[in-house]
Predict the 3D structure of the following.
Amino acid sequence: MHFVYSPKHLLHNPDTEIQEGVPLPMFEVPQRAERIRQALEADDGFELALPTEHGVAPIDAVHDPAMVRYLETAWRDWRTMSTNPQAVPDTILHPALREGMGPVRQPASPLGRLGYWCFETMTPIVPGTYDAARAAVDVALTTSDLVLAGESTAYGLCRPPGHHSPHSAFGGYCFFNCAAVVAEDLVRSTQEPVAILDVDYHHGNGTQQIFYGRADVLYVSLHGDPDRAYPYFAGHADETGAGAGAGANLNIPLASGCDDASYLAALDRGLERISAFGGTIVVVSLGLDTYGQDPIADFALTSSAYWEIGRRVASLGRRLVIIQEGGYFVPHLGENVRRWLRGVEGRTPDISGGQPTNRWPAGP
Ligand code: Q9C
Ligand code: ZN
């Protein structure tokens, strides 16, 4: 299997996020992607491919072009008013602030502009952020190109991730929604419906929002219940799509402590829905923050579950464009991705490089 990687992700390296009102070291760090690259490079079954440039048009197709232009100049904008080493908003556009007062305008102030586009405090902008975020989209679209060229599966090592960014905002460590860009591009180029399966711990509120009114893109997500988990404001089971998109959104919120068996049962529900939907390609938003040792999530999955999840997703019999999202326990992140992808290929888990148990059966 090819995996697509760009060293440009290293340009996005903020050191602090504001969580629960306090500054903490970033969880979304460059070492995540480096660890995954190392794990795949050490396995003969994977071959690295570099991305090709796809330009900005596929991004403008799913995001407000004004936000894309903003992100291009956001760092310079910040520097006109602040010498602080990373740009984080302090005043964020709340929908109730202008209730009954008509549309809001993009502010002239750099800090106001940042709060207009960014919805939280955990997604700092640094000098290389835009170039890294653009490269992540090129990685995603190159992965999709490989599948369109005939490969049954390819994996895009995207960083920064994307699934929290809706059409007109960014946050959740995300800037451009890579999976959504790929899904939209596939719909346009194949004229077929496309299903998205999101197995990151967090609900992909951005992806859901982008396709919520669309019948030609199915969004299926398994995630920590928003009653307790980020992003809080989306991901409930009763969000099923709107207008033409009614019925084309499936949320499966899961309890704290969710283990391998409960997760796999929920996965089977999601896969049934995808099977019943048209199309020949599935875009996977792959997060490994469902792992039991993840520092910012509360599921209890083991490394051996990832092989089985990959195997079951592949058993759909559809081509897969697999896009990296979250996963923050860096020591086991590469190994967990490698097992997931080996499960897809039906190769043995090969636990030689890795850790924990074997609750799920060895492969063929
Ligand atoms: N107190 C992805 O996994 N932190 N983004 C939530 C709430 C932000 C995760 C903590 C989580 C964003 C791609
Ligand atoms: Zn996540």
